[in-house]
Prior knowledge:
The complex is a heterotrimer.
Chain A: H1 16-51, H2 53-60, H3 65-91, H4 94-124, H5 146-149, H6 164-200, H7 210-234
Chain B: H1 12-33, H2 40-60, H3 68-94
Helix pairs in contact in B: 1-2
Chain C: H1 14-18, H2 23-51, H3 62-98, H4 106-128, H5 142-146, H6 150-178, H7 191-223, H8 236-270, H9 277-290, H10 306-318, H11 320-334, H12 343-366, H13 368-374, H14 378-408, E1 410-411, H15 414-440, H16 455-485, E2 487-488, H17 499-502, H18 526-537
Antiparallel strand pairs in C: 1-2
The structure holds copper (II) ion.
Residues 248, 251, 297-298 of chain C line the site of copper (II) ion (CU).
Amino acid sequence: MSNSHSPHLHHHFHSLEQQRQASSLGMWVFIAQEIMFFGGLFCGYVVYRNMYPEAFAVASHQLSIGWGGFNTVVLIFSSLTVALAVRSAQLGKKNQIIGWLVATILLGVIFLGVKCIEYSAKWEHHLVPGIHFNYEPHYTDDALHESTGSEHGTDHHPAPAVYPGHVQIFFAFYFAMTGMHALHMIIGIGLMIWIIWLATKDRFAPEYYAPVELFGLYWHFVDVIWIFLFPLLYLIGRHVT
Amino acid sequence: MNDQIDHHISPIRTYIIVFMALMVFTGITVWVAFQDLGYLNTFVAVTIAVIKATIVAWYFMHLKSSAKITRVVALAGVIWLIVMFALTMSDYAARSWIPFPDPW
Amino acid sequence: MTEQKHYINAETTVKSWLLTVDHKRIAILYLLSVVGFFILGGTAAILFRLDLMTPQGDLLAHETYNKMFTMHGVMMVFFFLVPVVPAVLGNFLVPIMIGARDVAFPRLNLASWYIFITGGLFALAALVLGGVDTGWTFYTPYSSTYANSNVILTGLGVFVAGFASILTGVNFIVTIHKMRAPGMTWFRLPLFIWAQYATSIIMVLGTPVIAITLLLLVLERAFHIGIFDPALGGDPVLFQHLFWFYSHPAVYIMILPGFGIISELIACFSRKNVFGYSFVAFSSLAIAIIGFFVWGHHMFITSQSIYAGLIFSILSFIIAVPTAVKIFNWTATLYKGSVEFRTPMIYALGFIGLFLVGGLTGLFLSSMGLDVHLHDTYFVVAHFHYVMVGGMVMAFLGGLHFWWPKMFGRTYNQGCAVFTAIVIFIGFNLTFFPQFIVGYLGMPRRYHVYPEEFQIFHILSTGGASVLGFGYLLMFCYLPYSLIKGKKATANPWPATGLEWEQTTSPPPTLNFIHDPVVTEEAYAYAKKNEEFYRQAIPAESKDV
Ligand SMILES: [Cu+2]
């Protein structure tokens, strides 16, 4: 209990070590909660993917692997920058913390920008669930994907006959899952701005950097969610042409 | 309260290697999606995602040097997820099975 | 004599209460709010119970009746039963019982109360704007397609309130892991703590699923995206899967903390160590875990596969085992104890009897064949009210009466309290026992108009409800009265074991203890306690009589 007079120690803890362990365990318990939160969506996705595999494959072809893959790279890169921000905090290097977090914010904004482009393309193609929804199998918004693009203008369409309602269910999950994921990123960016502000006020030291560390865990978790979303939403049935 | 946390700081090199590994797996998962493996496509895609997620959790999220209880909590989240999937799918998978024969 | 400083009089402004991070004050805030919701839900119950006196339902219009039972369910389940013990007694006691100065995250604790109130306001807004008529289960496709759009507000209310529950759970898990006093090993923890820990597991791993499910329901209701709409290819039963994935374990959120209270009460008023401490402790964990495997027993009468139904049925039987372990161990604790019939003990004994009936009828319902007949009848209603009211509310009232002197530093009138406990017990049985019979005879739940031969049961039930309501009213008189006129409580009036009794004052100071405690003995060391007690009570020379 040598550090019991540290300015970083809250009144109800006995030592900085206890406080550190508590905050890190708390974040992990929260992440377990997050797993189940997204888990509900994934569970619904799995049920319908098994129920309507063809419709899901057809609907998945409407998504752009180019943008999805690009965003995957961006997000993994942002995981790296956050990891380095935490490392800087462990070493007590204030300017590096701020630098890496600013980089992370930039990457997060790029990700969200791409998401906006994708969403607006879906809106234009009437693929947003709701009354506006109107599934037309010919549309693709992706030059990468020639196989259905080449079928333009012919009555014979390669995709098996799918009921538009089932395609709509795919997009309902697409928007619910990526939307919830994007919401987490927006919250994360807000948290980063707050942490940068704390860092400029010299609130962190090698023996106390809990906000940075906990935020790191959060951001990595958001990355993990995307690691699952990308193959499950963008890459279904790409091998059938 | 003897869960001593290792205050070990990973070298930058570790993070770079982890990042490269994640990139490689991302490439593989895109490439493999265009290969026709039949039913295995989904299985492979999910397996790669699980590997990537494990790498992130183990190195970036420091599960590697975490206390036992932290790992238990992370594992609990995953196990509960599996329970939810397994029992829900036990219904959907068995719905089309033949009903019980009429005993009379 | 100057007033001793404690958490209530440490600061007196309204602001000091609304911005407090003291777990004890937050517990009081929660107590006031859940009592408010209880009164709302109870009023709804009184109205539809009166309405059910006649087979034609003369008091309420059909829609109003539907809205009343929905409001009763939503208020009582999500805004009373789920938070009542964890957020009130748990919040107050968990840190004190383990010898900590506060919960691990005091500000999150306060945030959880505000989130809870926000959720409650959403639900109230829905009520003011015309009410919901889906029942508290919000089953699709009725809720997502046909019901009025207040479903959206109510759904959001429950969604928001869920996060209050999650934050409480996170807080307790971390507090119990990391904040225990020196010497407070896992197997010295009071069983109340084990129960809270098990409950927190369910809160953390179950609640997010209902949150996301209700969010999907709100989306479906608002935009008709087809997830739960069979006309668009969706599966309404998926909603039930996701809903019950939380809502069955939620039954254990509602009852496990009650188990914890009962263990404390039985031990104290039998003056004995709890029989088979570790079995009782681990049965809480077992219930929390197995509780997640059984949800399909709510769905036997749906398109759920019979094979899945079989699995869920078997698993539902299995969960009776840890529950029975508890009941057996409590009765074994009573055996040869010097039982004192103080108010909390009367609630505890009432709990054992009522919960036993509720639990055993649960086995009837988990048998698939029988459930075909009993599903959605008053038998189910009676079953879960025996568990929820006969179990949880009795346990909560027992706990409230037990820790009341600790929480407020005053004692209530014992005579009044014992009388009220008996009135409540009688009123409860009179309300719900006839419902087992009428349900078995085929009266479906949630029906406003019914055949005349069922009327006698409904009259009995309404009569019982009046007695029950009268009991609650009495309590609303003598408990507040005790705050003003009650005798000052000593630090350990019962006397009981545990840090909250032995190491701190009534009411406790802001940081719980004057000196941080060190634990040197097992929980429930009543043998030692009794010895001390007699040494004081009996003069030294007559000691070996
Ligand atoms: Cu159940």
